[in-house]
Design goal:
Blueprint lengths: L1 H28 L20 H12 L6 H7 L16 H11 L17 H11 L2 E3 L2 E4 L2 E2 L3 E3 L4 E8 L3 E3 L8 E15 L6 E4 L2 E8 L26 E4 L3 E3 L5 E4 L7 E3 L6 E4 L2 E4 L2 E7 L2 E7 L1 E4 L1
Parallel strand pairs: 1-4, 2-5, 3-5, 4-6, 5-7, 6-7, 7-8, 7-9, 13-17
Antiparallel strand pairs: 10-18, 11-12, 14-15, 16-17
Helix pairs in contact: 2-3
């Protein structure tokens, strides 16, 4: 009787211990931004249904709704899944979705493309693109050694360095995402529908690229660009011409109207050129202006790239 009791106790404690270890492992692997659903895999080594994978992707880019399939369809990446959404998703199907959501990334061609995607595979997709994901809140004094991603509204980064690229998805919505004193050594990729919600303050950004869901990956390398995400015109990229005359190196007038009979006197005033809603605005004003060469009835702005 005592032997039987000991065996029963050992079995009970073994079962409880295994359950706790699995729970801790899953909590460690599951992304903090993921809201788990009843149709998600029960463990990281389990295959994902098409419904679960689509919901996972929706949450990753920060676009959610009551029906995961309808949400995916509304942003244009839903394959023919509705008839069999509970069946396992294959790797080649999953990577087609990844290429639609992040067309700028170098997703490898699926090996064993007919194999099902497991939850741990989906997590690896996330981690291969971004080492850090920022959700709603303010983050200060951080260094990200790889890539980072922002997928929710109301994110502010302060005094932060990102050694790789920064991805900003449509999940940020219309609420401002602020990069304040942020250095990004790579490229900032901003989804087209939210580009006007991103604001830069005293930040050092390599390049900014606006992408479209489902867009084609370009073979071209962008060497210069300005998406006008700053509050003021970036003087490292733009130079104002001042006045109305072309002058020589000694400041002597050579030709009026910049050689084109232009009537405006060009200024660097914020009244004549400024950033508004992600656009560079140049505004002509009817007002008097004079210099050593004459008088003018209008002011405006003329900018050149540096």
């Amino acid at each position: 009787m005592r032997k039987l009791l000991v065996v029963c106790l050992v079995l009970i404690f073994s079962f409880v211990g295994t359950s706790l270890v699995f729970g801790e492992k899953k909590e460690e692997e599951t992304p903090a931004w993921l809201e788990e659903k009843s149709f998600h895999p029960p463990q990281s080594n389990a295959a994902m249904s098409k419904l679960a994978f689509v919901d996972f992707m929706n949450q990753w880019i920060g676009v959610t709704g009551e029906d995961a399939m309808e949400t995916a369809e509304s942003i244009g990446y839903l394959p023919d899944f509705k008839a069999n959404e509970r069946s396992a998703i294959k790797k080649e199907e999953a990577e087609a979705i990844l290429s639609h959501l992040f067309p700028m990334a170098d997703w490898p061609e699926a090996s064993n493309g007919n194999k099902p995607v497991k939850l741990k595979d989906a997590i690896q997709y996330v981690e291969s693109l971004a080492d850090q994901t920022y959700t709603t809140g303010t983050y200060s004094n951080q260094t990200v050694e790889g890539n980072a991603l922002i997928n929710q509204p109301g994110v502010t980064l302060e005094d932060t360095t990102i050694e790789g690229d920064l991805y900003i998805t449509r999940g940020i919505g219309t609420e401002q995402t602020i990069l304040d004193s942020v250095t990004v050594h790579g490229t900032v990729y901003v989804e087209k529908s939210v580009q006007n919600a991103v604001k830069l303050k005293d930040s050092d950004i390599g390049l900014v690229s606006v992408y479209t869901l489902g867009g084609e990956k370009s073979d071209w390398s962008l060497v210069w660009g300005d998406e006008f995400l700053t509050e003021e015109i970036d003087s490292s990229k733009w130079k104002h011409d001042i006045g109305n005359w072309i002058v020589d190196e000694d400041g002597e007038g050579i030709s009026p109207g910049w050689g084109n009979n232009e009537l405006e006197y060009y200024t660097d005033s914020e009244e004549n050129s400024y950033i508004e809603d992600g656009n560079l605005v140049i505004k002509a004003k009817e007002e008097q202006k004079s210099d050593e060469f004459g008088s003018y009835d209008y002011t405006s702005a003329k900018l050149k790239t540096e």
